[in-house]
Amino acid sequence: MSLPKVLERIEQACSRVGRDPQGVRLVVVTKGQSVTEIREQVLRFGSFPLGESRIQEALPKMDELTAEWHFVGPLQRNKARFAVRFDLVHSLDSLRLAETVARKAVENGKVQPVLLELNLGREPQKHGLFEEELLEALAQVQALQGLWVQGLMTVAPFSENPEAVRPIFARLSRLADHYQLPERSMGMSGDFEVAVEEGATLVRVGRAIFEPDA
């Protein structure tokens, strides 16, 4: 595909459900891409949030590129000190991790924007809170000095048919509405259009931008 094509498909998905495309932000996942590739395939089209899922890969790119940086992958507690370098952490998945990130944010004089990650598909290999843990976890995390919970995130179970995961995205939107959280980070290269139709405010797309045949 390409970045302009992804943007076009986001607009089309918004049109189908009567949404304003301005309410959806494309987070370009740059994992595995060089700084040169990011400049050529992303930044020449404008300014977009860039998403990374590995701290050790992200840091050198962050030193070279001035951009809005999002951390979208699993965050280990021993690397939580680097979380405060990001503009938004999508993947806060436990109270212990939240406490560590909060402490580092306070030490750096920052209020760190975060999303709570939910494992709505209840997949054992994936990170995230179960839905029944959200109420207590949200209250505990919101009480921590140094963190600003902006919304929720989920990674849907893989399916060749994007319609199969529509209920996951619908559920995340309902939970975000219930807890009055504005951001819903959901949808990746294979299912971002369905996610947009169900209320995503952030879609995390990499493969569909960087791989021509995606």
Explain this structure.
The chain has helices spanning 3-17, 35-41, 55-64, 95-107, 134-142, 166-178, 192-197, 207-210, and strands spanning 25-29, 50-52, 69-71, 88-92, 112-118, 147-154, 183-185, 202-205. It is α/β, with parallel strands linked by helices and 214 residues long. Strands 7-6-5-4-3-2-1-8 form an eight-stranded parallel beta sheet. Strand 4 (88-92), helix 4 (95-107) and strand 5 (112-118) form a beta-alpha-beta unit. It is globular and about 40 Å long. The protein starts with a helix and ends with a helix.
- Number of helices, where a helix is a run of at least 4 consecutive DSSP H or I residues: 8
Q: What is the count of structural domains?
A: 1
Q: Can you tell me the CATH superfamily?
A: Alanine racemase
Which strand-content bin applies to the residues? 15-25%
Radius of gyration: 16 Å
Shape, please?
globular
Distance between the termini: 6 Å
CATH architecture: Alpha-Beta Barrel
